[in-house]
């Protein structure tokens, strides 16, 4: 028993050791997943301190794994990472609610590149932001709420200043350069468009700090129109200095139309000036566009046809697959039933074979094994075992047969046993039951001692004359009824 127990302990230890890396990897994967979830929930800026602790614990765990430190220390670090990441995610959830107005303002400022383009204003807003995030992580929600309006104002100022220092500055430079080139004289319409767009952008920033994106669009238009005005002024001043300059100017732009016409193999008629040539090009472009639309329509029709065929084929295949799956499930069910039936037959055959082999250990007068329940019960009837009258002691003469029983039962190492004592009907029934119980117990003790079995593996009971197998009115019948049976329960 001690040797078997030691082997089991070694096997259990080996299995435990083999499971540790897998369990540690699962814990590491869980920690990484929870941290990633916190990151996706904006914990990187709504709970940076707590999330930082989670990532630090994970890094320490990875270092501990590399150094092959104790598993309990690694598990403690990974569990700390998981706990801190969950806490960071929860804080981020609260932050989204408490700072619902601040977060968009901060995002707009960042979109306008405020950290670089409005460094002073950004740092001013960020200092207050850091304090409020500290309040959030300390669960001081009232303190965070009180500073919400001030934070929005600071981020709005950073956004506005960023727009002024980037796109608005570019727009001002473009408009001023156009003015210096004389755009007010040589390209007044375009210059006016640029100046009005610039004024609109500046007015937006003065009146409403939330219009940074719209002001940016207006400033971009002012920049583009300012440069456009510059280009027109440069060309006008150039052509003004030359004889036939304005004619050269028209020819310069007509050259662009000629470039289009050459690409499209068109002959342009300039008798109506650039207007007629432009109309010819536009008509050609419309023709190409209509042809392209016609081709697209044909392709759409072809696609619709192919899509319908695809859907019909898919529906048919899915139907066939469903039928096949049902058939497979039916066959698997039948196979499972057949397998279970086969297993039952194999087990019954095994039990019959065991009973036959057990019987081979004895002569016909000594004992016989038979199957009383094909599901797993063998009866060993010790017909050659005879106790002295009125006694329940195992004599030396009986030990020879019992030793054969011990030898035969060695093949049933995983089974449990019930020793049954029986008597005939002569005499007092109470006495008969008592003697049958004592004799069953004596045989059970002998077998238990020689087989090394526990009391739970081999039990005994006495039935007296309750279960006769022969006629008690004859001597031969009474002899058969006075017997010891051993029931072998095969698991």
What does this molecule look like?
This protein is α+β, with helices and mostly antiparallel strands and 491 residues long. It is 75% helix and 7% strand. The protein is built from 17 helices and 5 strands. The chain has helices at 2-40, 43-46, 48-66, 71-98, 102-111, 114-117, 119-137, 141-146, 148-180, 183-186, 188-207, 212-241, 245-263, 273-359, 396-409, 429-451, 475-481, and strands at residues 368-373, 377-382, 416-422, 458-464, 483-489. The chain has a 5-stranded mixed beta sheet. Helix 7 (119-137) packs antiparallel against helix 9 (148-180) and helix 13 (245-263) packs parallel to helix 14 (273-359). The longest helix has 87 residues, at 273-359. The radius of gyration is 50 Å and the shape is elongated. It starts with a helix and ends with a strand. Residues 1-5 and 7-20 have low confidence and may be disordered.
Relevant terms:
491 residues, alpha+beta, five-stranded mixed beta sheet
The description of the largest β-sheet is: 5 strands, mixed
Structural class: alpha+beta
Shape by Cα distribution: elongated
Radius of gyration from the alpha-carbon trace, in angstroms: 50 Å
Helix content: over 70%
Unreliable segments of 5+ consecutive residues: 1-5, 7-20
* SS summary, helix count: 17
Strand proportion, as a percent range, falls in 5-15%
What is the H/E string? HHHHHHHHHHHHHHEEHEHEHE
The number of distinct β-strands equals 5
- The residue-averaged pLDDT reads 85
Q: Strands of the biggest beta sheet: in what spatial order?
A: 1-2-5-3-4
* Terminal CA distance: 21 Å
């Amino acid at each position: 028993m001690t040797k078997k127990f030691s082997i089991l302990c070694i096997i259990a230890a080996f299995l435990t050791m083999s499971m540790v890396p897998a369990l540690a990897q699962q814990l590491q994967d869980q920690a990484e997943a929870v941290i990633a979830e916190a990151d996706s929930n904006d914990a990187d800026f709504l709970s940076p301190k707590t999330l930082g602790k989670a990532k630090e614990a994970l890094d320490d765990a990875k270092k501990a794994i590399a150094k092959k430190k104790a598993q309990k220390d690694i598990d403690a670090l990974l569990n700390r990472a998981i706990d801190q990441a969950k806490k960071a995610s929860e804080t981020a959830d609260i932050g989204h609610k408490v700072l619902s107005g601040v977060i968009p303002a901060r995002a707009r400022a960042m979109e306008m590149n405020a950290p670089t383009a409005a460094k002073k204003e950004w740092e001013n807003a960020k200092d207050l932001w850091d304090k409020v995030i500290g309040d959030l992580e300390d669960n001081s929600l009232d303190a965070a709420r009180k500073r919400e309006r001030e934070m929005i104002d600071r981020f709005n100022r950073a956004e506005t200043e960023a727009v002024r220092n980037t796109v608005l500055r570019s727009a001002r430079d473009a408009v001023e350069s156009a003015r210096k080139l004389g755009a007010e004289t040589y390209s007044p319409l375009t210059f006016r468009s640029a100046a009005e767009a610039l004024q609109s952008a500046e007015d937006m920033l003065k009146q409403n700090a939330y219009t940074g994106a719209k002001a940016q669009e207006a400033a971009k238009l002012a920049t583009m129109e300012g440069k456009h005005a510059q280009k027109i002024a440069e060309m006008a001043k150039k052509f003004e200095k030359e004889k036939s300059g304005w004619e050269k100017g028209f020819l310069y732009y007509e050259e662009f139309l000629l470039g289009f016409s050459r690409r499209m193999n068109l002959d342009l008629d300039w008798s109506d000036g650039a207007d007629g040539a432009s109309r010819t090009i536009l008509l050609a472009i419309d023709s190409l566009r209509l042809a392209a639309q016609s081709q697209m329509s044909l392709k759409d029709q072809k696609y619709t046809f192919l899509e319908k065929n695809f859907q019909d084929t898919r529906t048919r295949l899915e139907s066939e697959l469903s039928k096949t799956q049902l058939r497979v499930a039916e066959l698997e069910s039948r196979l499972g039933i057949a397998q279970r039936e086969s297993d039952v037959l194999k087990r019954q055959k095994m039990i019959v074979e065991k009973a036959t082999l057990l019987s081979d250990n004895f002569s016909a007068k000594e004992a016989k094994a038979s199957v009383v329940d094909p599901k797993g019960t063998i009866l060993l009837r010790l017909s050659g075992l005879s106790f002295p009258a009125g006694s329940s002691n195992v004599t030396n003469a009986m030990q020879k047969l019992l030793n054969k029983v011990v030898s035969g039962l060695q093949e049933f190492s995983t089974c449990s046993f019930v020793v049954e004592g029986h008597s005939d009907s002569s005499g007092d029934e109470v006495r008969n039951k008592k003697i049958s119980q004592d004799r069953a117990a004596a045989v059970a003790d002998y077998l238990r001692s020689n087989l090394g079995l526990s009391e739970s593996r081999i039990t005994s009971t006495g039935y007296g004359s309750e279960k006769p197998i022969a006629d008690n009115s004859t001597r031969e019948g009474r002899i058969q009824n006075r017997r010891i049976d051993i029931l072998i329960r095969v698991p």
